[in-house]
Batch of 4 targets.
Target 1
Amino acid sequence: MRENYPLTTDNDGKSVWKFLRDEFKPKGKLFTPFNIISVPVIILGIILIVIRFWKGIGAITNLTQEVPWGLWIGFDVVTGVAFAGGAYVLTFMVYILNMKKYHSIVRVTVLNGFLAYVFYAGALLLDLGRPWNVINPIIGNNFGVNSVLFLVAWHFLLYMIAQLIEFSPAIAEWLGARRIHKILSGMTIAAVIFGITLSTLHQSGLGALYLMAKEKIHPLWYSEFIPIMFFVSSIFAGLSMVIFEGTITHKVFFKQISEKNHHAQNGIILGLSKICAGTMFAYFFLQLLVFIHDKHWDLLNTPMGYWYLLEMLGFVFLPMILFYYSYRRNNVLLIRIAAIVTMLGVILNRLNVTVIGFRWDAAIRYVPSWMEFVVTLTVIFTEIWIFRWVINRMPVLRDSPSWAKEDN
Amino acid sequence: MTINRRKFFKVLGVTGAALTIGRELKAAPTGKADIEFRGVLYDSARCKGCHGCEYDCADANNLPVPEPAKNMAPVRKTSETKRTVVNEYNTSKGKVFVKMQCMHCNEPACVAACLTQAMHKTQAGPVIWRGEKCMGCRYCMVSCPFDIPKFEFHSPNPKIQKCDMCYNRLKTGEMPACAANCPNDALFYGTRRQLMSEARKRIVENPKLYVDYLYGEHEAGGTCWMYLSPVPFKELGMKTNIQKASYPALTKGFLYGVPTIFVLFPALLLGIQQATKKDNETGEE
Ligand code: SF4
Ligand code: SF4
C-alpha cells in the first residue's frame, strides 16, 4: 500500500510531478498473453482507422446504401452501451435502495461503465462521415430536437459527466486530495440520480432510434415497444456483465481485493443472479405479449423464425431458468455460465435488430469486413488497457485509504 | 428484498406509463400538411423512358454524366452519383417506365432523424441537405422509408446525395430541371393541391388507362412527389408496404415521454433514497 499522498503531504508542486511521473510508468509484467495479443491488434486497428479517415468509410467497411449502420453502431455502440447498463443498475441498488452489500463492487462497475461509454460511444465518432461537424448539435447552433439521435447523443455526453463525478472520489483518493475528495463525495447522490434518469432514457432511446425503420427491420424484431425492450434487457445485460467482469477481475487482480470482499463476492453474485432472473422473466413475458399481439405465427416457420426462437428460448428463457436454478442451489459456477449465455443473448438481440434483421430482405446482405472486426477489437482492447491502468493505481478494487472513509 | 423489487417494478411501471401517455399524443396534428407545398406529379402512362431527365439532373447538380441509355440496366437504384433513375418493368400492360427520386415527404423521416438539422423541409416543399451542418451519421438513411439518401462511402469528405427538387432553381422561379425538360409531359410541377386535382382529372377522364390510385397522396403521411400509373404500383417495383401515417410520429411517443421521465424520475429516486436511508438492512436477504 502506498502511504504518501503527495497533494497533502507536500504541496510545493515538485512531488506531485514526480508522483505522476512514477504513476505513468507501466506496472507489472510486459509480456502477458493479453498484451501479446492486444498490442498487434491495436496497432493494426490504428492503421485501419488512419485509412478510414484518409479514403472514406467505405475503404474499410462493407456498409451499403441500404444498410448504412453496421457493426460499429450495432455492436460497439448499441450492444456496448447495453452492457454498460450495470453501472446505473448498481448505483440504483446501492445509493437509492441502500443495499450496502453491493457497495464493494460499485466503483469498479462505474469505472467500467464510464470507460465503456467513452470508448463505445466514442466509436460513434469513427462512424461519422463528417466528424468535424459533430460540434453542431452540441454547441447549439443546430438543435435537431425532434431527433432521437440528438437525445441519445446528449444523454451519452451528460451521462459520462455524471459517471465521472460518481467515480471522481477514487481519483481524489489516488492523488491524496482530501478537501476535493470531500466535495466530490458530496456530489455522488445527485450524480447517481441524474445518471439513472439519463440511463433509462438513453438505454430505451437506443431502441427508439430504430422506430422509424419500421419496414426495414424483420417484423419479429420490430415493434413499437423496442425502447422498453432495450431498457429492460439493459438491466440484466449490465448485471451479467458485472458478474462476468467480477469473475475475471477477481482472478487477475486477486492481490488487490481484501479478504473480506473476496468472501462477499459469492453473496453478491447470488443476489445479482436473482435480479437477473426476475428482470429476464419480465422481459421474456413482454416479448411474449408483443409476439401474441402482433400475431406473427406464420413467420415462425421460416429461417428467421427459427433464429428468433433460438434467441428467445436459447438465450433468454434458458439462462433465466439457469439463473433461478443456480440461485436456489447456491451454485456460483452455474450463475457465471448463465451470465455468459445471457450476454451472448443480448449481443444476438441487439445485432438482430440492428444488423441481422435490418434489411433482412436486401438483395446484397451486409456482412462486416474483417477490418470492421479489427477496429471493434481495437476499441475493446484499448478500453481494457485503460481499465487495467486505472485499477492498478486507484483504489477501485482495493479499499479506500482510511482517511477517505468518513466522507462516504 | 421483496420491498426492493416492488419498488423496482414501480419504477418500471412509471416508464411504461410515461411512454403510453406519450403515445396518446402522437395523433396531434402538426399543421404542416396545410402549407402549400410544391411538388411534381409523375405520370408513368406518359413516360416513354427516354432517360432525358437523368441527364438533365446530372447536369443541373454537377454529377457525373450517366452512361448512354442503351447501356443502362432496366432496373437500377439511385446512388451517390445518380439522384434519379428511370426504370423499366415488364408489366401486365407491357413495358412501363417509372422514375425514382426523393419523394419530398410532407413530414419527412429524414428530417426528424437528423440531429443537426442538416436535412431540412423547406416551406416551398423540397427537402434539402445542408453540408455545412451534416455530421455524416447516416441516421437519415436508416430512417427514410424510401431508401433515398445516399452516402459517399468512398470519400474522406463524404456528402449525402439526394434529389433536392432543384431547390436553387425553384428559388429563381424555375421548375426542377427534370420537369422543365421532359419532352413527353410526364412531369407536372405545381402545388400539391394542383397536383391532386390534375391527377384526379386524368383518372376521371381516362379511367381505362389509370389504376385509380394516387401514390404519394397518403404514403408516409403524404408526399410532394406523386405518381400515376397504368398498372398496380407493385408491378413497378414501388414500395407498397409504406405506412399511410407520418414516420416521425413513430418516435413522437418516445420523445414526448422524455420530459415526463425527467420530471418524475429524480423526484421518485430521491424519495426512495430518503425512505431507504434509515433502514440500512434492506440490502440483506
Ligand atoms: S423520401 Fe426519404 S429522403 Fe425524401 S423526404 Fe421522404 S424521408 Fe426524406
Ligand atoms: S447524415 Fe447528415 S443529414 Fe443525415 S441525419 Fe446525419 S447529420 Fe443529418
Target 2
Amino acid sequence: MTGSPLSEIDRPNSYIGRSVPRPNARRLVAGRGAYVDDLRLPRMAHVAFLRSPHAHARILAIHAEEARRAPGVIRVVTGRELAAHCTPWVGVLHHLKGLKSAPQHAMAVDRACWQGEPVCAVVARSRAEAEDAAALIRVDWEELPAVTDMETALDPATPVIHPDLGDNLAFRREHVGGDPDAAFADPEAVVVEATFHTGRHTGVCLEGRSILADWNPAEERLTVYQSTQAPHMMQTVFARHLGLREGQVRVVCKDVGGSYGIKVHVYPDEVATAALSKMLGRPVKFVADRIEGMVSDIHARDHRLRARAAVRRDGTLLAMEVDDLTGIGPYSVYPRTSAVEGNQVVNLCGGPYVLKGYRAKTTVVFQNKTPTCQYRAVGHPIATAVTEGLVDLAAEAIGMDPAEIRRRNLIPDDAYPCTSLSGMRFEALSHHKCLARLLEMMDYERLRAEQAELRKHGIHRGIGLACFIELTNPSPFMYGIGGARISAMDGATVRLDPDGSLAVASGVTEQGQGTEAILAQIAATAVGVPVERVRVVTGDTEVTPYGGGTWASRGAGIGGEAMLQAGLALKEGILAVAGAMLQARPETLDIRGGVVVDRASGAERLPLEELGRVVYFRGDTLPRDLPRELVATRHWTPKEYPFCFTNGAQASYLEVDVETGFVRLLGHWCVEDCGTVINPMLVEEQIRGGVVQGIGGALFEHCVYSPEGQLLSGSLADYLVPMSGEMPDIHVGHVETPTRESALGAKGAGEAGTAGAPAAVQNAINDALRPFGARVLAQPFTPARILAALGRI
Amino acid sequence: MKPAPFAYLRARSLAEAFDALDRHGEEARLLAGGQSLIPALNLRLATPAVLVDINGLAGLAGIALQGGVVRIGALTRHAALEASEIVARHLPLLAEAVPQIAHPAIRSRGTLGGSIALADPAAELPACALALDATIVAMGRAGERRIAARDFFRGLYQTDLQPGELVAAVEFPVQPPERRGCVLELARRQGDYAIVGLAAAATVQGDGALRDPRLVFFGVGPTPVRAAAAEAALAGAGGVAAAQAALERDLDPPADLHGPPQFRRHLARVLLGRAAARLLG
Ligand SMILES: Cc1cc2nc3c(=O)[nH]c(=O)nc-3n(C[C@H](O)[C@H](O)[C@H](O)COP(=O)(O)OP(=O)(O)OC[C@H]3O[C@@H](n4cnc5c(N)ncnc54)[C@H](O)[C@@H]3O)c2cc1C
C-alpha cells in the first residue's frame, strides 16, 4: 500500500499488517482445547455406524438381535427406522441448470451406494461397546454391479445408479467465450494438446469429523456441538430434516482441528447422530475415526481433462479448450452440491491470461465411490494444473522460456477492471507484479544456470512456474441464488465492557487458521484498544451474529470487514459519550491504546475503564438524553462483484532421480496478492499449509479404488499425506492490491497456496524430464508413473 | 476405532509370561513396544483375548559384546540400537538401518524382538539379521533354542517361533573391518516402510572384488529375500551388471499401490548398483 494516503486503518496504533500471535495458541498448546471429543455431557451415549462393505448392494435383511443384547447397548437403529425421524435431502442448486441428484438418506434404507455408506447405527454407553455390538450385526446383501469408471459411466451398457434419474449424468455445462474456433484456425497457430488427470484425494484434518447432539425434550431444543465450518448452515439443515424450526436448534463449535472444506458439508452420519439424540432424548456423540473418515469424508478432484491451446510463434496465446470429466460418487453432496468443482474448472481455466477464444465443458457423472465435494481451493488446483500445463507445452512447442511466455500473455496489471472469457469479473489483479517478484525471489536466472550446469553431470532438476487466480468472498451468487440457505453475509458485534476491554463476536469461525486473531486485530484497531484486551467469540449460533462461517477464504474479507465496521461504529458511540464527559467535540477526540486522547496532540484524556465505570455504574452523572450504546453490530456482504479474486504466482524447484523416479523438492516460492495483509504471519502460514496440501495432491495423496469400488488406500499407511520431511522450504512474498469494495481491503488468503502448488510441481517435473522427451500429466506424480514415462519400467 | 475387549497381564517374570502363553495359547499375544500390535488391535485386525506385557522383564533388554558376538536383548528399543556404540563399532550395517525405521517416537518404543517376531517383509531388522548371519535366540519354558536367521523367516508374518516361545535375543557375529555393509531403501516418505530395501554386505580387500556377498532385499516378497543368484553373479566375473540381471531369477515382487512388479524389480536393480558402488567406494 506504499504511496497511498494513510487510511483510518493505518493509524499509529494499528494492528493491521502486524504478525500478532493467535490468542488461542497457548491454550491449545497447553492441552486446554475443547474439541468435540473432549466434551462430556450427563447421560451421554456414543454411536458407531455399521457401514456398507460393498460399493453397491441391496440390503435384503439386517440381523441385529445379537447386537441389541450386547453389553452396554442402548439402541440399534436401521436406516429404515431412522428414515421415520429424518427426511432425505437432494443436493441440487437451481442456478446450476440441469443438475440432478437422488434423495439421500442419513443411513441407507434399501440400498448402499458406496463402500462406507452408513447402514445401521448402534448407540451404546461407550464407543468401544458400540463397536463391539456393531461387529455382531449381520446384513444379507445382494451385491449390485458397481459403476466405478467415470469414462464409461454414461455408456448405454453401464447400469444406471439411480434409475429414476434416467442416466448417470449429474450435470453438464459448456461455456464458449470469444471465438475459439477462429483462434485455433489462425494460420500462425501452433496447437498443443494433452490429457491431464488430477487424482481423487481428500483433506485429512488432524481432528476427524465429530458431533455431539443433545436433544432436550423439556425445552424441545437441540444443541449440537460440532466440528464444522458453517454453524448457521448446519442449524438450518438439522431443523429442516428433523422437523424443527431453526430457532429450536443451536449449533456450537468449540475448537475445530482443521477443516479445509471437509467440514462444510452435510454428512449422513452426523445428521443421523442428531436424529438419534432426538429419538433417544439424550446426548449422543459421534467421532469419526480415521478409517471410517477415509470412506465417508468427502473426496475431491477426481478429474480427467482433455485440453488444447493455440499459440503463435511469437508467443501470443490465442485460445484454450478444456473438456473436463469428473466422477462425484452416487449423490451430489448437500447443500453445496458436487457440481461446483467442475463448474469452477469451467470458470477458471485460462483465467490469468488474455485469450481470444475459450471453450470449456464439464461433465459430472455419478459413480459408486465416496461422494466428492468442495475441498480447499475448489477446482482451482485442477484449472491451474491444466492451464499452466498448457502454457508450458506451448512454450516448449515454440521454444520460448516459460517465464517469458507468461510475461507476454498475463493480463496487464493496468487492464482492470476486466472480464475473462469465462465471464469472471476481475476488479484488480497483479499478475505481472507477482511474477516479477517471484522470479526475483527465486533468482530464476541463477536456477536456470544451475540446472543447465548440473544436467551435464547427470543431475536432472526442473523449474516449474504457475500463475493463478483464486476466487474468494463469494456474494449470494455462489449459493444463495441457487436456493441454499448459506449466508453470504456475516455480522460482527463489538461490546465495550466496564473495564475497557472488548468482547467481540463474529459469524465467521475459527478452525485453527487464526480467524480469531485477525478479528481481534481488526477490532482493536478499529476501536483503538490494545489487542490483548479483545476477547473473541465465534462458532455459536445462539450468541454470534448470523453468518456463513468459514469457506472460500471469506473470513478476513467478509467477517473482517463486518468487524471493522462494527468497531468503528462502537468507537463513534464511545467518543460521543467521551465528548459529553470531557466537554469536547467528539471529532476532536480519538482512542489510542485504550485511552481517549486529544486527536491533534495525542494527550491522554480519559481511560476507557473510567468511561466504562461512569456509563455502567454512574450513568446518573451523564446528560439525561445522551445515547450510551456501548455495543455495535454491523453486517457486510459483497455487492459490487459476484466474487472477489486474488492472484499469485508459484514456483517449484526440484530434482528427479531418473533411475528411481523419485522427486526431491528443493524449494518452493509463492508470491500472492490477498489484498490487505492483516497478519503476515497468518497469511504465510495459510500459504505454506496450502502449498503443502497442493504438493500432497501432486505427489502423494491418492484415493485408489479397485474396479469393484473398494477403496484400497483406506488408511494413513496407504494414503500418503505430505510430511515435513519431504517438504521444501516455502518462501512467501506479498503484493498488496486491496479490494476497493471494502474499507479493510482484504481479499482472502486461505486457498491460494493449494491453487497453484500442484501446477508448479507438475511443470517442474516435466521441465526436469524434458531432455528425455518424457512427460507426466496424471497426478499424483508417483515414482512408478515417472519411471513409466521415462520408459524404464 | 477401539480395540475389541482384551485382558491385560503384566508379566513380572519370564515364568509368568510362559504360564500365560501356556494357559491362553493362541488367544494370548505378547506386548513389547506395541508399535505394531496396538495399531492392529485398534483396527481389529488382531483380537487376542489376553495381552501379556513383557516390558517389565528387564533381563530381556540390553546390548552386550560377548566374544565374537553382539547379543542384543529382544526388548532393546530401536532408539537404544541407534545410540549404541557397540552397534556402531561392530555392526555398522545395523547402525545404518535403524534410523531408517519409522520415526523417532516409534523408535523410542519399538523393539528388536518385536520386529523380528513380527517379521514384516518390508522391515529393516529381519533383513539385517539375514545379511549379518544372525542367530535368533528363542526361549520357552524348556530353555533356549538358537535358530539361524536364514531358517527363522518362514513366510508372510510367519516365523519358526513355536507356541509358548518368545524371542529372547538376537546374536549378531561381530563384523570384521574388511566386511563392509550398507542398507539402502526407497520409501515415498521418510520413515515409511520401504518400497524396496537392500541390506548388503561383502568382504572387500584391496583388489576391488566383492567376496562372499550378502544381498538381502526387503519389501519384495513374503519374507526378506536373499538374492542368491545375484550374490553368485556379483562374486563372479560378470560383476554388478550380471548381478542386476540375475535379480530376475531371485525376486518375484508383488504389485501394490506403489506400482507393478516390474517397478520393484527395477528399483531393486538400481539399489543393487548403488549398494555395490557403496561397498566398493
Ligand atoms: C507409523 C509406523 C511406521 C513404522 N515404520 C517401520 C519401518 O519403517 N520399519 C520397521 O521395521 N518397522 C516400522 N514400524 C514398526 C515398528 O518398528 C515396530 O515397533 C516393530 O516392528 C515391532 O516392534 P514392537 O516392539 O513395537 O512390537 P509389538 O507391536 O509390541 O509386537 C509386534 C508383534 O510381535 C510380537 N512380539 C513382540 N515381542 C516379542 C518377542 N520378544 N517374542 C515374540 N513375539 C514378540 C507381538 O506379540 C506382536 O505380535 C512402524 C510402525 C509404525 C506405527
Target 3
Amino acid sequence: MALTTGVFSSGRAELQERTLRTDRWWLQPLITVLVLLSFVVYATFRAFEGKNYFAEPLISPFYSPCLSTECVDGASLIGQPFGKIVLFGLTLSPALFILVFPLGFRLTCYYYRKAYYRSFWQSPPACAVAEPHKKYTGETRAPLILQNGHRWFFYIGLLFNILLTIDAVLAFRDAEKHWGHMSVGTLVLLANATLLWLYSASCHTCRHTIGGRLKNFSKHPVRYKAWTVVSKLNHYHPNFAWVSLFGVAFADLYVRLVAAGTITNFYFF
Amino acid sequence: MARKIKLRIWRGSAKEGSLHDVEVDANEGEVVLDVIHRVQATKINDLAVRWNCKAGKCGSCSMEINGKPRLACMTQMANFEEGETITITPLRAFPVIKDLVTDVSFNYQKAMEVPAFEPPADLKPGQARMAQVDVDRSQEFRKCIECFLCQDTCHVIRDHEENKKKFAGPRFFIRLAELDMHPLDILRNRKKTAQEEHGLGMCNITKCCTEVCPEHIRITDNAIIPMKERVVDVKYDPVRWLGSKIRRREEIS
Ligand code: SF4
Ligand code: SF4
Ligand code: FES
Ligand code: FES
C-alpha cells in the first residue's frame, strides 16, 4: 500500500518503515481481537439459542429481563410485553429483545472504543505504528458521532444492573421458591451483578455526571467526595470492563449448564 | 565500564535522508542523549540535535528511539540489551530541519489559536481567591513541558497530514480542559469551540498521547474524555440543553 500521507508525507524524515518499533506491539491488539471475537461468537450463539437460560431460581444475564411471551415459565420478572416474533422463519429469542442495550453500552464505552479502534480498526494498531487508512475523521461524523450517546446507554445500564441484582437476590431461594437458601449459582449471579456495578460506577460518564462536570468543587463538597471515589474506580475501568465481560459470559454458561442438566447447582444450605 | 553500542542514526533534510550506522562507547549510567553527544564529538561532528536541560524538564530533546517517541535525556542506555542496535530518528509527525531536529512550529500555531484565560472583568490584580480543590485538576495539566511527544504520537496528524489544519492535538486539549475547568475562567463557548474549531471530535481516545507523556499527565482520562463529556452536555444532550434553557446553571457553556 503506497500511502503518501502521514509519516510518508514530503518534508518528514524519509523512511520506508511504517514503524521502527522493535517490541511486540502487535501482541496487545491481537489478544484483544481474539478475546472479543470469542465473546462475540459465544454471545451470538447463546442469544439465538433461545433455551437453557432459566433454571429456578437462576436466570442467565443474557435473558434478563425476559420480555417475550416465548419466555419459559417463571423467567419473566417484569412481565411479557412482547409477543412471538418470527423473522425469516426464525422465532426471535427473548435475548434479542434486550441485547441492544448492554451491547450499545459496551460499544460506546470509552475504554472499549479504544480497544476496538486499535485492534479491529487498526486506527492506530499501536502507538507510533502507521495506520493503514487513507482518510481519517475520527468521531466527527455518522456513524461514529453516535458515540456521544454513551450516557443514555449508561442510564439504561443502571436499570439492567438493578434487575440483575434482583435476580441475584431471588437466587437466595431454592428450586421450590423457598427463601433462605444459597447455592453456587447464587454466588455466580451475585459476583456478576457486583462486577457490573463496578463497571458502571467506574464509567467515565458516571465520573462526569457525579461531579466532573462542575467548575467549582468547593461549592459541592458531597459531589466532590463522590467524584474522588469514582475517579479512583475510574482508574481501573479497563480492568472492570474485561472482568465484568467474563463475568457475564461465565454466569450465562453456568446457568446454561444447570438448565441443560449437565451439572447440578450445588446448595450450601 | 564502557561498552560498545551500535546506533543507527537518521541524517538528512526535509528533502532526503537515511539511517547511518555508527559505533560508539557508552558508560554506565548514561542516557541516549549522552551517547548522541559522544557521536557528535567523535564521529559525526555536524550532527544536528536539539537539547537544553538534560533533566527532562525543557522538552527539547524529543526524538524517536527504536520507533518510540521519547525524551533522549530520560532514556537510560541500561534499557537496551547487549548488542542491540538502537535506531534514532527525528519526530516523524513534523517536517525535518536537519538530522534529529524537526520543525515543531505547528504546535506554536495551535497554541495561538486557543483563546487565553479570561477572568471576570471586575477582578482586580491580587484579588483572585480560589480553593485548592477547584484548581487541582487544572494544575495537573500545568506540568506539561511542551515536549510535543503527545502531538508527535497522535495518529490523527501523524498518519494524516491533511488533518493538521483542523486538529489542535492532545497538548492543546489539556490546555482547553485546564481553562474550561478553571474556577475563574469565564470565557463562553470553550466546549463548543473545542469540538467545532479545535477538532476534539477527531480524537478517538486511543490513548497514545497518555502513553508517551514524560510528565505522566493522564491526558485522555483527565482532559480529553472529560472535555468530550462536556461537549455532549452542550451539543448532543437534549435534556441538558433544555435544562440549561429553563434554569440558569452554575456552569458556563
Ligand atoms: S487519545 Fe486522542 S489525542 Fe491522544 S493520541 Fe489518541 S487520538 Fe490523539
Ligand atoms: S502533555 Fe506531556 S507529552 Fe504532551 S507536550 Fe506536555 S509534557 Fe509533552
Ligand atoms: S462504560 Fe466505559 S466509559 Fe462508560
Ligand atoms: S534536554 Fe531538556 S528534556 Fe531532554
Target 4
Amino acid sequence: MSGVERIPILKIGDVLLASIQVDLQDRDVLALQEDLAEKISATGAHGVVLDISAVDIVDSFIGRMFATIAATSRLFDAHTVVVGMRPAVAITLVELGLTLGEVRTALDLEKGLAILAGLAGDRAAR
Amino acid sequence: MTGPGREDIPIAADDDVVRIRQVVRSYAQRARLSLVDQTKLVTATSELARNTLTYGGGGSAVVEMLGEGRRQGVRASFADSGPGIPDIELALTDGWTSGRGMGLGLSGARRLVDEFTLDTEVGRGTTVTVVKWSR
Ligand SMILES: Nc1ncnc2c1ncn2[C@@H]1O[C@H](COP(=O)(O)OP(=O)(O)OP(=O)(O)O)[C@@H](O)[C@H]1O
Ligand SMILES: [Mg+2]
C-alpha cells in the first residue's frame, strides 16, 4: 500500500495555493484538508485557492472535500475559490447533482485571486 | 481493438477506487467515447466503487468492452456480498444517505450513464451494472 501523497501548499501574499496534480485517493484528500487548516491558522491567510485544472474527475467525495475546506477556512475568516475546472468536469458535476455549497469557482488563477482580493477588501472595510 | 476486452479488479481499499477510475478511463478512450462521456462514466464508476467499498464491505469490479454493430461501449459492474439494500427506491432518491454521504452516488451515477441495473437482496449483496455507449 502506498503512502499519503502530500499536496504542496504555496503561500502567495495572503493567499494559500494548492494545485491538485494527482489522481486523489481518499486519504490524500483528508490530508490536504488537515494541512490547509493548519496552514491557514498558522499564516492568517485570507484566502485559499484550489487549482483543479489537472483534475479529470470530481466525484461526490472530492466535491464534499471542497465544501469542507471552504467551511473550515470560514472559521479562520478565509474564503476558498476553486479554479480551473475543466468543462467536462463541470458538465458532469451538474448532472451528478452536486452543488459545491459555499465554494466559489473562477475560470483561472488570476480571476480566483481577484475574487479573494475583493473579499479581503470587504473584510478590511468592516 | 487493442488491449484487453475485460478486466477484473478487486475492491478492498481506497487505492482500488483510483485504479478502477484509471481502467475505466482507458476503456472509455478505446471505445471512442467523447471526453464528456468518458468523464461521466468514470465519475459514475468512482461513485459505485466507493459504495461497494463503504457499504458492501468490499467486492469486485468487472470492466468490459462492448461492440454492437458500429457502436462501441463500456460496461462496468460492481458486486459485493454485503448487507444489500432494503429499499431501492429510497436508495435511489437524490440526497438520501444511510451514512454521512450526500446521497448522490447512486442516483447521480444512474443519470450519468446510458444503462443502469441495480440487483440487490438483503443479506445477499448488491450488484450495480452500468453501460455507456459511444455516439
Ligand atoms: N453496495 C451497497 N450495499 C449496501 N447499501 C448500499 C450500497 N450502495 C449504496 N447503498 C445504500 O444506498 C444509499 C445511497 O447511496 P448513494 O451512493 O446514493 O449515497 P451515499 O453513498 O450515502 O452518499 P454519496 O455517494 O453522495 O457520498 C447509501 O447510503 C447506502 O445506504
Ligand atoms: Mg455513494
